[in-house]
Design goal:
It is a single chain. The chain is an alpha/beta fold. The protein folds into 3 domains: 69 residues, Orthogonal Bundle (Arc Repressor Mutant, subunit A), CATH 1.10.10; 99 residues, 3-Layer(aba) Sandwich (D-Maltodextrin-Binding Protein, domain 2); 94 residues, D-Maltodextrin-Binding Protein, domain 2 (3-Layer(aba) Sandwich). Strand 7, helix 8 and strand 8 form a beta-alpha-beta unit. Strands 3, 4, 5, 6, 7, 8, 9, 10 and 11 form a 9-stranded mixed beta sheet that branches. A two-stranded antiparallel sheet has the order 1-2. The radius of gyration is 23 Å and the shape is globular. The chain is built from 10 helices and 11 strands. Helix 1 crosses helix 4. Helices cover 43% and strands 24% of the residues.
Length: 289
């Protein structure tokens, strides 16, 4: 199995669809099918089934996916170390980042980082925090920025803590909310749970005709247009000019969301990782490791 095969397997596992995988790999679908058949012949086992809804890996295929992920991580680390040892002062930085942080905060941080270290190539993968955390556990990234509280056996530094707000185009009371549409963001389970908890504990009525979206930006745009009200994290409200008020738990504590920088100490031998960690620590308020 060579690197093209590894890339093929990982792309198929991510896309779960032959057509989309072929597009990602810049292959025709027949060429991708031929590559899969070659792999199956080489390994002596079927790797996947085709269904009307996409593809399903066989048990043997699932095993191959796990080995492909491990091999991909090993190849990445090998290149990083060789790049450093061969005289290139900095290898590439592989960064996993929570989607909202990548959208609202990371560009400013990376701008300053790349101004100081223009020779470092940065590969950013933005995804839901739960997915970034899973890939960090699989060593897919050198460093990650993850929102929410979670278990991690490496270094974990808080880099921001933000409140959740009730937002509306115009000032309104809790009782007046019964006459306004509730715009419900469902981008992640934790944010949804925090919002639902506040609604249950603070409103004596069921919010009217909820509108749902899996995009915080869409929710905020709807609020700006006066369509309704929403509960959103402060990270997206820096330019919001409407009415916003922080929300509190039943016990009276602010409802907040923490963001963490995560990495393993062993990764600090790579100078690009060490410099990025130092840059983040100087860019944001941080807690201990």
């Amino acid at each position: 199995m060579d690197e093209k095969d590894i890339d093929t397997i990982l792309t198929l596992a991510e896309m779960q669809n032959l057509t989309r995988a072929a597009e990602r790999l810049y292959l025709t679908q027949p060429a991708l099918t031929k590559r899969i058949q070659h792999l199956e012949d080489d390994l002596g086992a079927p790797l996947l089934y085709r269904t009307p809804k996409g593809i399903i890996f066989t048990p043997e295929g699932e095993t191959v996916v796990e080995y492909a992920k491990a091999l991909s991580v090993t190849m990445r680390k090998m290149r990083e170390h060789i790049s450093t040892e061969h005289g290139n002062r900095y290898g590439p930085l592989h960064l996993g980042c929570a989607t909202q942080y990548a959208h609202y905060r990371l560009p400013r941080i990376l701008n300053g980082f790349l101004e100081k270290y223009p020779q470092i190539n940065v590969d950013v993968v933005a995804d839901r925090s739960i997915n970034i955390q899973r890939e960090m556990n699989r060593n897919s990234f050198s460093v990650a920025i993850i929102r929410g509280d979670f278990e991690w056996n490496g270094c974990k530094k808080m880099i921001s803590s933000e409140s959740y707000y009730l937002v509306c185009k115009h000032e309104t009371s809790n009782d007046q909310l019964r006459n306004i549409l509730y715009i419900h963001q469902k981008i992640d389970n934790l944010g949804q749970e925090l919002a639902d908890e506040w609604v249950r504990n603070n409103l004596s009525f069921e919010p009217r005709s909820r509108v749902e979206s899996n995009s915080i930006e869409v929710c905020l745009s709807m609020v700006n247009q006066g369509i309704g009200w929403a509960i959103l994290p402060g990270i997206c409200l820096e330019r919001f000019s409407g009415y916003k008020i922080p929300i509190y738990s039943k016990e009276g504590a602010p409802i907040v969301r923490n963001t963490y920088l995560c990495y393993k100490k062993s990764e600090l031998v790579l100078p690009q990782v060490k410099k990025f960690v130092e840059h983040i620590e100087m860019s944001e308020w941080t807690d201990g490791c």
